[in-house]
UniProtKB/TrEMBL annotation:
Biased composition annotated in UniProt, kind: Basic residues: 18-28
Limits of the Beta-lactamase-related domain: 200-505
Disordered: region residues: 18-46, 76-128
Source taxon at top rank: Bacteria
GO molecular function: hydrolase activity
Lineage summary: Bacteria, Pseudomonadati, Pseudomonadota, Gammaproteobacteria, Lysobacterales
InterPro entries named in the record: AmpC-like (IPR050491), Beta-lactam-related (IPR001466), Beta-lactam/transpept-like (IPR012338)
UniProt biased composition (Low complexity): 29-40
Pfam families: Beta-lactamase
Protein name as it appears in the record: Class A beta-lactamase-related serine hydrolase
Amino acid sequence: MLANRRGRRVRRLWKCKTGRSARARMPARGRPPASASGFGRARRGRRRARQAWPKILALVVVELVAEVVAEVRGRNSRPKLPAETPGRNSRPKLPAETPGRNSRPKFLDRNPWPKVAGTSGGSGRRRGAVNVRCCAPANGVVMPPARSMLLSAACAALLSGLALAPAPVSAAAPAPAAAQAAEDAELRALADRLLAQNAPAGAPGIAVLVARGDRVLYRGARGLAEVELGVPLSPDQVFRIGSVTKQFAAAGLLKLVEAGKVGLDDPLSKYVKDYPNGDAIRVRQLLDHTSGVKSYTGIDGYMHESIKRELNTRELIAVFKDLPADFAPGQDFRYNNSGYVLLGAVIEAASGRPWHEYLRETLLQPLGLEHTRYGDVRSLIPGMVAGYARRDGAVLPMAFLDMSQPHAAGALVSTLDDLWRWNRALHGGRVLSAQHYREMTTAHGKARHGEYGYGYGIGRMPMHGRLTYAHGGGIFGFASYLLYEPTSATTVAVLSNDESGAPGGIGLEAIARQLGAMAMGAPYPPARAVPVDAAALASAEGVYRLDPQRAWALRADAGSLAVQRIGGGAAQRLTPVAADTFVYPDGIARLRLERDGAGKVAAMRYFADGEGESERSARSEEPLPAR
C-alpha cells in the first residue's frame, strides 16, 4: 500500500510537469508533424519532461533514503514471527559451515551470503554484502524487482557509510561526563572544607553558591542566622550586600545614559547644583573613583554616632561636600563611598525618583530579583538574617546603622540566588547594550592598573591568570563577595552575617577565588611547606614601603615569616614554598623576596593572584615597630 501510494505521487508529478496528452500530440517517429504548431507542442512536451526528471529522481531518492532509515531504526525492534511460521523476517538458518550475519569477518566480504532456497519473499537468488530483506516494507508489500534493486543499493550505501563513519559523540560522552562528575564532587568537597574551616559552629556563618552557566554546582551554608536562638543559617536567607550595591547603581545610571537623560561627561553641577568644584567633576569619575571627592566614611569618629541618623540625599551630601578633595578630578584613583552617594543624587535628579525606587522599577523587578531591595531598617524584610560583629574575639550584635546613609554605595540586601541571576543577566547582555556593558567593565584612565583595575562599580581582577569581574562588600553586621569569570560563565557568591567575614579564616574573597578557580577547571595548587634556613629568614626582617601611605613589617616566625601592615591589620603567618617565596594563608597570594648582588634582601613583591602582576615594596631603613 505504501509503495502504491508513493507510485501514485510520482505519476501525479509526471502529469503535472509534462501534461497528460503531451505524448499523444507528439508526431510519430520518422513522420513529419501535421503542422509546425503541432511539432512545437511536442517539443515543449519533451522539454517539460527533461525538466521534470531531476525532481522525479530527487523524490525517488528521498523515498529510498526514508525507507532505508526507517528500516535501519526499526530492524532491532521488529517483532519476530513464530519459528514455525516462515515469513520475511524468518530466513532459514544457514548451515553451520557457512558464515552468517553474526559470523561475518570484520572486513567487508563482497558476497558472504550463499544461495538460499525457500525464503519467503525471495527467489533464492544470491544476495549482496547487505541482506536485501532489510529494505523490505514492514507491511509485507512485495516490491518490484527494479525498485528492490534500487533500495538494496541505497541500503548498502547507507550502511557502508554508517560503518565507515566515526562513532557518534554520545558514544564518547561517558568518559568526559565521568571526569566532570569527579571535578564537581571535588568542588563540593572543597566548598564543604572551606565552610568548615571559616564558619565555626555556634557562631555567625557563611553561605556559598557556585554555578557554571545555568547549572548550580554548589549551594550551601554553615553557621547560625541568629546566634541567640540557635537558628541555623540557610542559603535562602537575605543578607546586606554592602558595596556590591555599587554595580547595581552603576548599571542603573548607564540605563539613564542609554535613555539620553545623562551623559558620562556631564559635569556634576548639572545634577547637584551647589557642589563645590562640581563643574570640574564628571559623572564617569564618580563611577570609577577618580573624582577626588573625600569619602565620608573615612571621617574620624563619623562611623560611631553620626552613622545612626536618618538623612536624605541632600543632608548626606552636606556631610562631606565642604571637605578638601583628595586630588584633582581625574588625576588619581582612590576608592570612596561619597562618589556613589553623589551618583545616587544624579540618578534621582535625572529620573525624578528616589535612587532605590528607580533601581527597583528599572532593574530589580524586570529581572525577577524578588529578594533584592533597599534594606530599610524601618520595614520588615522576610528572610533577613541577624548581623554580628566581633570585639576581642567575642561575638556581639551589630551596631545600629541607618540604611539611608550607605545610600547607593551600599544599602541593598539580596540572596545567593538573586546575585547569581544578576550576574547572568548583567554579563549575559540582558541589562545593558554591548557598548555600555564594555564601558562598565573596562578600567579607564587612573583606574586602570595594567590589564586589571576598576570599571564602573565592578573590579577587573585576576584569578589564576584569567580575568574576572568581582566586588566585595563590608557593612555593619555583614560581608559579601560576588565574582564572575566570563570564559566559563562561572559565578561565585559568598555572603556572611559576620562583618569580619571569616574571622580567623582566609576571608570571603579567598573563598570565592578558590571555588571559582576550581569551577573553571584550574584550581590553585596547594601550598606545601619546605624548610627554610633561619639565617635567610632573619635577613629578611624589616620594614618594606610601597608608597608614603602603605608599609609592611616582616618578621621571622617559627621557621617562616609573618607579615603585618603597619598602622592596622593582624599579622599573617606565611608558608614557605621555595627559597624566598611564601604563600599567604588564603592559599593564593604570594610574597617573593628580591635580593641584590650581595645577597641582601632589597625588596619584597606581592602577587595577589600568586603570579602575573605584582606590587613592589622597597626595603626601608625605618625600624620595626613594637609588636
